[in-house]
């Protein structure tokens, strides 16, 4: 954690080894990333929306923060529910909150 803080203070980017490995696998088109969870199937924007849901943001607040229409955010919510095999909005919110807390 200390290394990460110093790296950021130096104006550099810090990525955990897990994120680094994920990015490398994605960039070379490898499907061999064995620790992949269903959340890793989300696109970057879906993950961003998922995180904001977990932080308690409403659809309107997410739309405003990301400069999207509420309808677009609703589409992302539906895609996330489908990819994570979640039955309804309540399950989505519960899963997102749990993910943010971890």
What is the level-2 CATH architecture name of the largest domain? Orthogonal Bundle
**Morphology:** globular
In oligomeric terms, what are we looking at?
single chain
Distance between the termini: 16 Å
The radius of gyration computed from the alpha-carbon positions, rounded to a whole number of angstroms, is: 15 Å
Number of helices: 6
Going by helix content, strand content and strand pairing, the class is mainly alpha
Per CATH, the class of the largest domain reads: Mainly Alpha
* Spans of at least 5 consecutive residues with low confidence: none
Q: Largest sheet, described in full?
A: none
Count of all domains: 2
Count of individual beta strands: 0
Order of helices and strands: HHHHHH
CATH topology name of the largest domain, in short, is: Arc Repressor Mutant, subunit A
Mean pLDDT: 85
Q: So, the CATH homologous superfamily of the largest domain?
A: Winged helix-like DNA-binding domain superfamily/Winged helix DNA-binding domain
GO molecular function: DNA binding
Domain HTH luxR-type: 35-100
Pfam families: GerE
GO biological process, one term: regulation of DNA-templated transcription
Descriptive overview:
There is one protein chain. 64% of the residues lie in helices and 0% in strands. With 102 residues, the chain is mostly helical. The chain has two domains: 1-36, no CATH class; 37-102, Arc Repressor Mutant, subunit A (Orthogonal Bundle). The mean pLDDT is 85. This is Response regulator UvrY. Residues 35-100 form the HTH luxR-type domain.
């Amino acid at each position: 954690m200390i290394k990460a803080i110093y790296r950021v203070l130096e104006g550099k980017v810090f990525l955990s080894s897990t994120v680094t490995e994920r990015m490398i696998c994605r960039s070379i088109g490898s499907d061999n990333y064995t620790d992949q969870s269903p959340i890793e199937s989300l696109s970057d924007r879906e993950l961003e929306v998922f995180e904001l849901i977990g932080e308690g943001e409403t659809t309107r607040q997410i739309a405003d923060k990301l400069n999207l229409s509420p309808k677009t955010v609703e589409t992302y919510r539906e895609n996330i529910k489908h990819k994570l095999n979640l039955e309804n909005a309540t399950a989505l919110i519960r899963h997102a909150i749990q993910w943010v807390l971890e």
